[in-house]
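Internal ticket - ligand job 226, adenosine-5'-triphosphate:
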Amino acid sequence: MPVPTPVLEARGLSRVLPGPVPVTLVNGVDVAVAPGEFVAITGPSGSGKSSLLYLLGLLDRPTSGTVLLEGRDTAPLDGDELARLRLEKLGFVFQFHFLLPEFTVLDNVLVPMRKRAALPRAAMTEHALDLLDRLGLADQARKRPDQLSGGQRQRAAIARALANAPRVLLADEPTGNLDTRNAQTVFDIFRSLAADTGTAVVTVTHDEHLAAQTDRRLHLVDGRCV
Ligand SMILES: Nc1ncnc2c1ncn2[C@@H]1O[C@H](COP(=O)(O)OP(=O)(O)OP(=O)(O)O)[C@@H](O)[C@H]1O
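stdout (structure tokens):
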């Protein structure tokens, strides 16, 4: 069977903070993520999990090595080109939801769609409402984030991350502020997202029970994948 082109690939990825005593955050990581794959980044505190995720998400630049997105080398791209790729191809979820407090949930989901401007206005609203419905938030669309529960807020943040139908969803401890039930719901959403839409999901987690539910684990120790 032909091996599919990885949607996301790291080759010899390293990130060193310069200084009198340079600090190595990520050290020579090679990884290839296939479309529809659900991958956990695990490892002890300070092992470089978030640093690796930021590199994979084109939010930080490696000091050596490169990231390929859908087979395209991102190393030569400038800041604007990277921002465009993030907007069009990647979705992000963090431990804190980072929803805009003065906007409704619906308007929060519309922000990345408006920025991309790939759809007429009415179609954007329809798509955003459909996403919220799929995440069990149909009744919350016109509320502000502070009127939602913690679990609902994180699902709204996931809806926003999915607004532009990313090829890869990157999540940094997305269940860190959630109780067990809501944490499981988030992982259930990730699992069906990967299986049903082919979106690759890469998530940092401390939680062994959740990590065991993914297809594959990248375990980091001192910035190296072991
Ligand atoms: N800007 C920075 N300046 C100095 N040290 C940093 C900086 N960013 C990260 N570090 C250090 O680099 C190491 C890796 O950090 P990173 O946040 O990637 O680890 P992590 O595995 O995600 O940790 P945690 O599980 O605690 O969130 C840590 O030791 C951290 O303290």
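Auto-summary: The domain at 8-225 is CATH 3.40.50.300 (Rossmann fold). The beta strands are 8-17, 23-33, 38-42, 64-69, 72-73, 90-93, 168-172, 200-204, 216-221, 224-225.
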